[in-house]
Specification:
Layout lengths: L2 H53 L2 H9 L3 E17 L2 E2 L3 E2 L5 E16 L4 E4 L5 E6 L3 E7 L5 E6 L8 H21 L2 H21 L4 E6 L5
Parallel strand pairs: 6-9
Antiparallel strand pairs: 1-4, 2-3, 4-7, 4-8, 5-6
Length: about 220
């Protein structure tokens, strides 16, 4: 082989070995920087969680929960279709012929059931590992009509006994009462209790971890 070609080949190999350590050094430096940043982030995240766990206490978490005053725990929609019939009577005993009127009405709405958290209280066990929350029974927070879906479906008026606004209002009041009776039979209060317990337990676990057992005591309803 020509001596000039041999020399050029040796210079090329030498240049490669001189350059490669620089590349390796740069890679090591970048890797160290990334590693340090990652470890620092994990350290600060762990430190933040540690501070939070040592700052929060059951009493603080409980005070934050009850500060919302009211918790909606169950929601149910309903639709009631019924007929109202009325006629004139004499002495409220004898029905006067040809005075009957009637109308079909559809009444729709949404009932929300929840718990009054402002009356809640809590206690801890002697070993400090069990938290017992005392709550009043769930109740109806709201019963909101859906007027876009509610209204008269069919009307049979009578000149001798016309349908009055107060007749419709009285019928709507009956629908409201019926809707609230039906949700009791449907078990919405039991659903509200279970959802309330799940929500409060999740709040405690999120703030304090699973180191506490959360139990509930539902007070008897008062007349």
């Amino acid at each position: 082989m020509d001596s000039s070609k041999t020399k050029a080949l040796m210079n090329k190999k030498l240049s490669f070995f001189l350059t490669k350590p620089k590349i390796l050094v740069y890679g090591i430096v970048v890797g160290l920087v990334v590693g340090i940043v990652g470890i620092s982030s994990l350290f600060h995240a762990g430190e933040q969680r540690y501070r939070q766990a040592n700052t929060l206490s059951p009493s603080i978490v409980f005070s934050r929960i009850v500060s919302s005053n009211e918790m909606v725990s169950a929601t149910q929609q309903y639709s009631i279709v019924d007929k109202s019939v009325d006629d004139n009577t004499l002495f409220d005993i004898i029905h006067i012929p040809f005075t009957e009127n009637s109308f079909w009405y559809r009444y729709c709405g949404t009932i929300k059931v929840g718990v009054d958290l402002s009356k809640a209280s809590y206690d801890t066990s002697t070993d400090g590992r069990t938290i017992t929350i005392a709550l009043d029974q769930p109740y109806i927070i709201s019963n909101t009509p859906d007027m876009d879906k509610s209204g008269v479906l069919e009307e049979n008026n009578n000149l001798l006994n016309p349908i009055h606004v107060e007749d419709v209002d009285a019928f709507i009041r009956k629908c409201v009462e019926k809707s609230e009776e039906e949700i009791v039979e449907g078990g919405i209060y039991d659903e509200a209790k279970q959802n309330t317990e799940d929500n409060i337990r999740n709040m405690f676990n999120s703030a304090l971890g699973d180191s506490y057992a959360i139990e509930f005591n539902w007070r008897e309803a008062t007349e």
